[in-house]
Amino acid sequence: MRWDEQKVAGGPQELPGMPALKGLVRSVRTPEFADITFHEVRARSVLNRVPGASPMPFSWTVNPYRGCSHACTYCLAPDTPVLMVDGTSVRLADVRVGDLVVGTAMRGGVRSLVPTPVHDAWTTTKPAWRVRLVDGTTLVASADHRFLTPRGWVHVRPEGCAGTERPHLRVGDVLVGAETLADEAFRRPGSPPVAPPPPNDAPGGRAVVAVEDLGGERPLADLTTGTGDFVADGVISHNCFARNTHTYLDLDAGDDFDRQVVVKLNAPEVLARELRSPRWAREHVAMGTNTDPYQRAEGRYALMPGIIRALGGTGTPFSILTKGTLLARDLPELTAAARDVPVGVGVSLALLDPELHRRVEPGTPTPRARLDLVRRIRDAGLPCGVFVAPVLPGLTDTDEHLEALLGEIAAAGASGASVLALHLRPGTREWFHAWLAREHPELLERYAALYRRGAYVDAAYRTDLAARVRPLLERHGLTGGGHAMGGRQGYGEGIDGREGKGGWPDGSMPPPAVPEEVVTAPPEQLSLL
């Protein structure tokens, strides 16, 4: 069926239940992208300034798409009681941005109750499931929602993206109750007063006795908090991370973020106009550090060729970071632009094992496909840096694995490589630990020790990894760029615990190289790695 025949609406007034979307041309649904609506808009501006406090080595970005078709939504019934810092409970639907609720944080290796602010709140409509516990508690949630168990964060149902099965609730699982956690954090000077959560005296009271399909869709609600979780009807409940950027375009942060993708049809033309302004200083513009410009819909809309022409035609240096092999389509445009302006291209590649790739990075192009992309980029005469990220302790960090991977990267002709250890920020940490518990339980104790101080791997591990990686990079001629991320300002430390030259691999940034005075920035700043 033709894409043009799938038109849903011709203007915002024809989209019942949605706020007006400025600049809307039409909305389209197609069997090729099930359950997703593309809202084609005419944007006023596409050149975005990076906040001054950011450690990134660039000041401007371009994002031709908003929204994500693979996003998960962690939602509960609107009447679910949420524990506030004063000990009272408030309906989830009545919690407001700015309220202080009870969340959790790791304190000295122990999960403790802490006050946390609500950053966002929204509603959505999704299929719902009822989780019944031994003590009579019932929790109504979406299949995507996650609760904390002794084996980590688990979803209500097993269905995952691209047909994969994810960690999920089983009869007999015990949900972690707030009454079982330490609350010393509340008694620190300056902390808000809080009443302790009520005890749960029923033997095995938090054990799951049933997970029941309620049939059809129901109204659900969710929050974003500072800790990434909150206490829902006595148990620790994961929440969705920052989705409120969708609200900047008059779309809500719940269901719309998942199913309503905004496409800036006129991005190339608007960008060309903005870059022709006499005030434009021809600063470096980066693409792919927030959302991948070569996501699947780009195959239909083909916005990037015009964006590349606009940048090259105005003397603006730029870089692209991607996992998407669709970039190969635009190699002629990139080659032409590189004759006029400095261009950098980066590809992320963490491992070679196809089975481990299927389990760790489902839905992304295979390692061989990405190596071929590197080869094609270099054959076109363009630079290409490779981010070996993330290195997984105990799985992909052996000398043999790194030697083989860097050898393949070098054979593909990469300009340089940077090696980055796994970073486990809140949310990612619980998900990865749940995966370890299922796939490699023998590594749980080691990871607890390596990440006992927080999101970053232990300093001794970083030092050892850097010492082992350095001669491998030298042997394969991939030393350009170092081992850590670089930025405009001082921030964090590199893989070897030292500040110094930015570690963006050679080829990933437009030449000339990042200035020597910049220092390192943490790897999580690159959301696509």
UniProtKB/TrEMBL annotation:
Keywords: Iron, Iron-sulfur, Metal-binding. Residues 226-466 form the Radical SAM core domain. SMART domains: Elp3, HintN. Transmembrane segments: none annotated. It holds the Pfam family Radical_SAM. Residues 478-529 are annotated as: Disordered. Residues 478-494 have a biased composition (Gly residues). Residues 515-529 have a biased composition (Low complexity). It comes from the Bacteria. InterPro entries: Elp3/MiaA/NifB-like_rSAM (IPR006638), Hint_dom_N (IPR003587), Hint_dom_sf (IPR036844), Intein_C (IPR030934), Intein_N (IPR006141), MJ0683-like (IPR040086), rSAM (IPR007197), rSAM_sf (IPR058240). NCBIfam families: rSAM_Rv2578c (NF038135). PANTHER family: SLR0285 PROTEIN. This is Rv2578c family radical SAM protein. It comes from Actinomycetospora lemnae.
